[in-house]
Write a structure and sequence with these properties.
single chain, 10 helices, seven-stranded mixed beta sheet, 38% helix, alpha/beta
Length: 280
């Protein structure tokens, strides 16, 4: 079994048998020739399937220990894709400390589509329990909240929902699967704004959604194909390039942050340092 950092570094490598290309190529074609009537190669139209995107999605689903992955055109497109699972009058319990773009999207869906969002303190597990009703369809949290950097106990929430028919959705943008894998702690869906740490070079707007269950993934795939918010082939290539160095980059960033926090704590002009040292 490979180490996790090996999965990152080898993502997409040696998977192009026709030429033996080590790095997976960028397939820009929007349409694909069939050998004969009803003889598809598995690729028909690039919105539905694209070889470069498929390679990224399959590799990242394996990293996350999920059933399947959808690569979206942005992090917000990833969250919007997850919202396609719900209907009017469904209720969702949400972390009260939340990325502003996510809050705006939730407010828009509440006003226009009658989804209900109830906000609770992400550090208070009992608050989630007390807020659940027979209309609650999902709990949505950020593993580390944006902007206040509160670390949510993903495992405790996963254990809470284990026997309940409620989807547990985790935005894991800040920690990435290198530092935390929510699907192994009880989450049903994990979301990333891949624009940030995963791509890592400030040149690739992208999002990723991974589902633990095949049925949930199938529903996400159908909506992803229907809405068309798929990630372009070249951006898939850039994201795979970035993922290869994620462990190296994060190791260095973690070490730098630790040293910076130590320096600031000892500085006489600094009253409080907000630094997250422990990851569950």
């Amino acid at each position: 079994m490979y180490q996790l950092d090996t999965y990152f570094s080898q993502l997409g490598n040696k998977q192009e048998p026709s030429t033996g290309a080590v790095t997976y190529p960028v397939h820009l074609s929007t349409a694909y020739r069939h050998n004969d009537l009803h003889e598809s190669t598995g690729f028909d139209y690039t919105r539905t399937n694209n070889p470069t995107r498929d390679t990224l999605e399959q590799g990242f689903a394996a990293i996350e220990s999920g059933a399947g992955c959808c690569a979206t055109s942005s992090g917000m497109a990833a969250i919007q894709l997850v919202l396609s699972l719900f209907q009017s009058n469904d209720e969702m319990i949400v972390s009260s400390d939340l990325y502003g773009g996510t809050y705006r999207l939730f407010s828009d869906y509440e006003a226009r589509f009658q989804l209900k969002f109830t906000y609770v303190d992400p550090l208070n597990i009992q608050a989630f329990t007390d807020t659940i009703t027979d209309k609650t369809k999902a709990i949505f949290v950020e593993s580390v909240t944006n902007p206040l950097l509160k670390q949510v106990d993903v495992k405790a929430l996963g254990d809470l929902l284990k026997e309940r028919d409620i989807l547990f959705i985790v935005d894991n943008t800040f920690l990435t699967p290198y530092l935390l894998k929510p699907l192994t702690l009880g989450a049903d869906i994990v979301i990333h704004s891949a624009t940030k740490y995963l791509a890592g070079h400030n040149d690739c707007l992208s999002g990723l959604v991974v589902a633990k269950d095949e049925k949930v993934y199938a529903s996400l795939f159908q909506s992803h194909n229907a809405s068309g918010g798929t990630l372009a082939p070249f951006d898939c290539y850039l994201l795979m390039r970035g993922l290869k160095t994620l462990p190296l980059r994060l190791d260095r960033q973690v070490e730098t942050a630790k040293r910076l926090a130590q320096y600031l704590r000892a500085h006489p002009s600094i009253k409080q340092v907000y630094y997250l040292e422990r990851v569950q």
